[in-house]
Each structure stands twice: as C-alpha cells, then as structure tokens.
Automatic annotation (TrEMBL):
Protein name stated in the entry: Alpha/beta hydrolase
Organism: Faecalibacterium prausnitzii
GO MF annotation terms: hydrolase activity
PANTHER family named among the record's database cross-references: PHOSPHOLIPASE-RELATED
Keywords: Hydrolase
Length: 310
C-alpha cells in the first residue's frame, strides 16, 4: 500500500497556487520520480502510475502546471500561464517542486518524467538543473520544424496586440494540432491520443481536458520549444545523464518516431551519451492511457531499477 497526499504549493508567480500530489511508498523510499504533465490535461491522471511505482518503493510527486487542473483560480485561468514570461514560470515551478521534495527526502535518487508538452519542459529542465537529477524519462515528445514554431510564435504575438494575451485563437490551435488525427480518424477528433475508446471518452467528458490554450500559453510553450534548438542551451545538459525516450510509433506528435529520433539526435549532437529509446508498435500519444499501459509502466519501473543498481 501507499499513501496518496494531495496538497497545494505556492507558484513562483506571486498570488498563484498549484495543486499537487505525493504518492508515498510504505517503507524505504528507493527513488523519487517527479512528473511534468502535458498540455490541456491534469496531474491526477498520473495517479495510477504513481501507485504502481510506489508499490515498488518509488515516491512519485507532481503538480498541475499553471492554467491546468487544480492550479486554476477561475475557469478563465484554463490555458493561461503568466506574464511576462510564462515559459520561465512553468520551468521555475517545476524546479521549486524539486527543491521542496528534496528538502523532505534528501539524498534520494531523483528522476524527472515529462509527457508531451511536459516533455518539452523536462528537456529544458535538463539544460538548467540536470545536475540535480539521476536521470529523466521523456515521453510523447517531438521535434517540430523550427520555422513552423517561429511562425506560430509570431502569429501569437501579432494576435495578442489586437486581442490580448488571454485570447483563445482557433487559428493557433489548428496550427498546433493540424493533421494529428489524420489516418487515425475513428469516432472523435481526439482519437490520436490513444487506442482505448473508454479513455478517449473520459478525456472528452472532462472540462480539464477540453479547453483551448490562450495566446499566452501557446507563446510560452513555443518559446520553450525554440530554446531546444539552441546548441548553447543544450550544451548545458550533463553529458552522462541517463535518459529514456518512450513513444508510440503511431504518435503524430513524434511523427511516428521520426521526431523522437530528431530530438535524441539533437541531444547527442550536444554530447549526451546515455540515451535509450523504445517505440511501441501501434501506440499513439498517451502511453499511460494506452491499451498497453501495463507494459509501459513495467518498462518505466525496469529502467528506474537499472539506474538504481550500485
């Protein structure tokens, strides 16, 4: 058995608070995994993984990013990060959670797991505080064309002049998700997420998963993604840090694995030497909601165990 604790912490943005949880194993804490969730979802969706890992002696913690889940003040906050630098706010919140958790559990091996948008933040995190980690798991990531990201960021800035940073633009949303459902069409526009119809329906029925990002959050996210093209930023990542990349080979975000490999190649070009990759045949974007999620969780546990070997 494990103990699940929900709590709130102050954001690094004054006046904002974040919903978080900590899943504590019985007995000795062998390692800690901190979660960085994806866009337009919420941290409690990761509780099954947390309980699975806690049963193996691994404490799991994470929070709802600004503008997500229980970290909103009112519904107007959905999909809004912060001004003037939302990218920095989300990153600093992730690190503040690390500092808090390490204060409670000093000298325990510490890992970061990021999914989708959370994987882009995890990859930035590695370049800033990678030396504080024992390794990282990068799930559902990609490597979008730089020119397209720059264009989308420019569109956000132009639209914000006319409509403000709180505006929700159908144009930017369609640019971001263009073609994701292509070839995976079935019942819903969200079928690209995973093959489990019940999970897709649950996602569609939850307002915490069905809002539109504001220009502020899109601009912030694009800003962060563009940093991952900068060799000077990537060069700051510890070269020997163990990394595990996981993705479905039918995941459009990772271009069916091609974008995942480009992300890996960019880190290798910056000197990273300890990278493993696994692509799951037929799996789509949300590996922890997929039909083969038990296999994915077992692979995560197995990799963590391997890193904890003396």
């Amino acid at each position: 058995m494990s103990q699940m604790i929900d709590f709130t912490v102050p954001s690094t943005v004054p006046g904002r608070t974040l919903h978080a949880f900590r899943c504590i194993p019985d007995g000795q804490v062998r390692a800690i995994v901190q979660l960085s969730h994806g866009m337009v979802e919420f941290i409690d969706r990761y509780k099954p993984l947390a309980e699975y890992l806690a049963a193996r002696g691994i404490l799991v913690t994470g929070h709802d990013h600004l503008g997500h889940g229980g970290s909103i003040r009112t519904k107007a906050d959905y999909g809004y990060f912060a001004q003037p630098d939302g990218n920095r706010a989300v990153l600093d919140d992730l690190h503040a959670m690390t500092v808090l958790t390490k204060t409670l559990y000093p000298d325990v091996p510490y890992f970061l797991l990021g999914h989708s948008m959370g994987s882009f933040y995890a990859r930035q995190y590695l370049c800033e505080w990678g030396s504080e980690l024992s390794g990282a798991i990068i799930m559902g990531t990609g490597f979008q064309p730089k020119a397209l990201v720059q264009l989308a960021k420019t569109i956000c800035r132009v639209l914000a002049v006319f409509f403000g940073w709180q505006h929700r633009s159908k144009l930017v949303a369609s640019l971001s998700f263009t073609g994701y459902n292509k070839g995976l069409e079935g019942r819903t526009p969200q079928d690209w997420l995973n093959r489990d119809a019940a999970e897709v329906d649950k996602y569609r029925a939850d307002e915490r998963c069905m809002f539109t990002f504001t220009l502020n959050a899109y601009y912030s996210m694009f800003t962060g993604i563009l940093r991952l093209y900068d060799p000077a930023v990537l060069a700051r990542m510890p070269k020997d840090l163990p990394l595990l990349f996981l993705a479905g080979d039918a995941d459009p975000v990772g271009e069916q694995g091609k974008g995942v490999q480009r992300a890996i190649d960019s880190l290798k070009a910056a000197g990273a030497q300890n990278i493993q990759k696994k692509l799951y045949p037929g799996a789509r974007h949300e590996l922890l909601m997929e039909l083969n999620r038990q296999e994915v969780m077992a692979d995560i546990a197995h990799w963590l165990d391997a890193q904890l070997q003396p």
